[in-house]
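Supplementary Note 2. Why include the ligand at all?

Several targets in our set were suspected to adopt different conformations when bound, so apo predictions alone were not considered sufficient. For every target with a known small-molecule partner we therefore ran a joint prediction. The input for pyridoxal-5'-phosphate is given below.
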Amino acid sequence: MYYEFLAKEFGISRRITSLGKEAEASLDFGEVKRVSGINQLRVLKAFGDCGMSDFRLSPSTGYGYGDVGRDTLEQIFAAAFGCEGALVRHNIVSGTHAIATALFGLLRPGDVLLSASGRPYDTLLPVIGAKRGDGSLRDFGVSYREVPLVSGRPDEAGVLAALEKDSRVKVCLIQRSKGYDWRESLGAGEISALYRKIKALRPDVWVLVDNCYGEFVEDSEPLADVLVGSLIKNPGGGVAKSGGYIAGAAECLSRIEGRLTAPGLGRECGASLGHTRDMALGFFLSPHVVGQAVKAAMLCAAVFEGLGFLTLPRADAPRRDIVQAVRLGSAEKVVEFCRGVQAGSPVDANAAPEPWDMPGYAEKVVMASGAFVQGSSIEMSADGPIRPPFAVYFQGSLTFEAARAGIMLAAERVSRLL
Ligand SMILES: *Cc1c(COP(=O)(O)O)cnc(C)c1O
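The joint prediction is reproduced in token form.
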């Protein structure tokens, strides 16, 4: 029925709609249902336990002293993620900003940052630092080392050896989602196991997990001293208009809050300006919306496997984040894929994405984002760096029902190049 409508109203060829129909029929959404069911109840319970109230959703202004709604929402994030505390702010401008704030809060001159998951996400490279005078960690005397992944997994022995050898390592970074790499994302259980090993050897090292795209995809979040993410991805539920969160151990948050605002001010100030309601509603909806996005990712994989492309993860493989990678093999196909996704979006459906020099990325990147919140990638979106192996990264969708259109349009456009 849906696929007939797509053929008639969206101009998708019969070949592609029957591929879509078959692909969808082959999928088993049982695990998605189980995970969003558990996470939804966990979040609901956090709201009740922390005492969210109608009054607390109201705005504060100025310094924002005594903003109990802001404080309550931070307690809710902490409770849902199993952490001692959290900072949840609309004026954390992105995931990169949240991670940078945490790193600058934790690290001091002479310290070493160690990445346990190989090369970090593109936008973190300028934070770590390339040249003098850029205000990066390096500029402040913090050095950086990384232990490369081995066959796409953290090299546990290598990480422990690096920690044993260098007592200056203060923070160990683990990235859950693959970013623009062609590898499996790390599972929450796998990260938690590595966390335990690191802490057993070096209790003085803080483990920071870049949790972007991973929230609520599994039935628990990874163990970490600090968990960081963006509110225009999973935990904003498509409702938060901007923001980020930093959740974790009290001793870490007390260092980070001085960097978030100013030493001495910390988390006590920061007017919510009316964003608390959006952030709270988005967090409440997030387990469900993430389930929709995971279903969309699975359909995307099944359809492009049907067209003969390599996908990561495979349609029926366990999900660790909301990102679906498809190896398209040429820049032209990456652009056409993104144009299809754009055309199936509710906003700017008539725009044609072009590769551009996006700040923080080394190569040109093409992005499809027809979202209600600019650049939101819990909403349906697709992007790919214009570099081999010319993989495109598809993620999000507030509803699975709408994702059918974007995926079919992308498949239609790519199939015309075959
Ligand atoms: C999205 C993302 C980030 C942060 O990106 P922003 O665009 O700054 O929000 C960091 N790490 C990973 C793995 C990501 O997916």
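The radius of gyration is 21 Å. Residues 275-306 form the longest helix (32 residues). Comparable summaries for the other entries are listed in the accompanying table.
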